């Protein structure tokens, strides 16, 4: 008999169990308890049995049955049976061979728990800053107390103490308590809590009496409950609420499978799930917070494992259960926020930490590939950026280090230093022919090209070596020894160094303890030369989902059950503080986290396949992260592993990433035979699709055009917690039809984005919220609420500007979206405000050159034929692009005959017929300016974007507006139908712009009813355009206007557009 082994809790992995565990790990009353064990070597004659006691009384031994052999081990199982609440079981696993050579392991023990619940209210105490409510205990063991506190208006905090001890929270005074025979009422500003006394049941109301939510009916299922033995331990605490059908539960961190988690059990558990996160329902970024469509949100304050049961146990029951660590003074502490989703996120991030604004350069295009592991390759890729004229602002290097210390460039030689010392750049020698010849010069070259450099990191003291390097360098051995000796690593239950479980990523390695200031300072000091001398700009902080086992110990007293979810935050927090202290304009780029992740800046969605399924999941993960207070997110566009992406997947992904918080591409393979890099030039070379480079170039240019908007919106997210990429339910909480659309979103406050995420699709059916929305690319319009089918090639993406939108842009000399402006984020070629007038609107633009918020306003008066824009003080020349018909004049500006004339002048205005944008160029100024466009109407509805019957689109006659005109409108039955929107009820003029060489007529209908016959007089030639007008009365809102060649009509025409004007 070589030995016997049993580990009751294994590594405490939620998603797997060891072959030598106790099942269940923490038995409750009625559970059948199975003991699993292994012996070695495999040999005949072995026996395994369990000796055990129950509440101190010895029990008859239980024999274990042989289960199977694997490798050199035999595996055994023994059934101890079910137990009762309060039972204390001690057991030892024994083994021998042919009744000799006995070996044993143990003793092990567990205490059996069961669920108890609150009963009637027995009293309350007003503490002045909180209220304690005392209840009975269904088991009769404890005197439970529930504390309510009101930190700020619209929010309350609850702490549940089953034993009555451990209450710590407090809030603000100013609430009132009213006690009656049946109800205890606590009124605090906009909230009223009503507590039914017999039995205890909480309901939450607005001050006007509207019910927000209430606990579940205690006659049907427990409200507040806890798992306990009744004397020595409380292991779980839970609360349950009534959830009527249709309520949505969204948030929970980065969730890949769906936005609304109703009908599922959501695990609060950070996990390194390589690929297929949606199918496995696992996540790197787990936040114990949700938004409920009824107008409230809940945040659990702890970091231990929790499960949210959302209509799974009972269809109308939603609850949460948290692990406690087992103390008798254990509590469940949670916040309830009320209001709109935006208000709730504002409150949530006020409690858990405001998002940290990334540096401005982070909003450009990032490039990364694991295979870039030499200076020659990096230099070649930097050259490609310039050769192909595709702007980038950041480069991530993953395979740069020795894969041992993770702070020394691989291939460098140097004298090893003691573990308490750090290397300087001057200590490193880069022999000829090795990977890196002069990293400092390489980084400087990247900086000259406007590209920041990020280096990959992992929080481990690596144990196993195969290649790169094949043996651990002496410096690494020195560091490991020093870290162990000085307590800089996490510890196991017996006080030795904790090691990542075998089979996990970097298995058997030790991990630095970032809860120790000394350990953190030591670890980070090793990287000083990278920032101080080489000049890198931050770190890609990968990994950290590595803490398994309740016995793991950290310097601040926390154990593995708390640190499994919290360790990523200690890691990213340490790196973030370090980078910010040495490089204020630096950043980190992270994968794993939990509550407060937003305070360390940017997260990406982890390891995903190159597939449309992963694409869809990444969009959901970004949206749900945003709903959880994490606004700065990315994914490896088009995926980073698996099959090489098709041109279709690549360009659809690039289009979406252009309109996401962070745009970056990355590939996994370290040494592929053929490059796997997701650079646009490599994707074009690999796929043979020559559309890739020009389309990606345009997207990258648009990304740079958007920098003023992106940075302004990012600052707003940092101030409020409202994400840049907003799920439809968050952006439009009053639009029930919008919530289910998880492949479209509001990007910032102004842009509705609907990426095409389905393979083979050439169109997108998107939900359009209320109002008239404007196509960002061509000014075409649609009115919601409703559904729009949008056709988009691989070089485009459906994007609409909201009614009244004001969008700051950096445009090229021709004022074209997608025009080349380079990769500078510090200076703008043409600061432009694109304005889509609708009512009165404003936008708070951040002028970062002087760190000032500048508010620009727009008010249209279509009845008076004016649009007035108030332009704030700005330190640079700026240009307005106002969507309208051609003005008669613009106040304070000189008319210019052409774009060239506007470009050459210091000020002036010019109307662009192709885009129907009035350009108003303004010099810098120290005060507000008022610009009025006179003699204008709402911009025309272009016929090429209308619905044609029997017609085509032409462009062979100059002088049209937009991108073309309706051609072939020449035979009975032909028609063009416009979707229009009347901003106010009353008389309107329908002005049709047309050309014809013969007198013609057409029948005009509004909403299917004939409004009249339109006479279209003959013009000089087909290159001459005229206007024909029909007066009609319209109600406010959307309408259809059809101009048709009816049976009685005559003459062929070309149709340019329709203006819906006020008299």
TrEMBL record:
Q: What Pfam families has UniProt attached to this entry?
A: CBM_35, Gal_mutarotas_2, Glyco_hydro_31_2nd, Glyco_hydro_31_3rd, Lmo2446-like_N
What the entry lists under InterPro entries is as follows:
CBM6, Gal_mutarotase_sf_dom, Galactose-bd-like_sf, GH, Glyco_hydro_31_C, Glyco_hydro_31_N_dom, Glyco_hydro_31_TIM, Glyco_hydro_b
Residue ranges of every copy of the CBM6 domain listed in the record: 939-1061
User: Which Gene Ontology MF annotations are present?
Assistant: carbohydrate binding; hydrolase activity, hydrolyzing O-glycosyl compounds
Tell me one GO biological process term.
carbohydrate metabolic process
Question: Which keywords annotate this record?
Answer: Glycosidase, Hydrolase
Report the sequence similarity comment from the record. Belongs to the glycosyl hydrolase 31 family.
The protein's matches in PANTHER family, at most eight in alphabetical order, are given as: HYDROLASE, PUTATIVE (AFU_ORTHOLOGUE AFUA_1G03140)-RELATED (PTHR43863), MALTASE-GLUCOAMYLASE (PTHR43863:SF2)
What is this protein identified as? Glycoside hydrolase family 31
Q: Supply the source organism for this entry.
A: [Actinomadura] parvosata subsp. kistnae
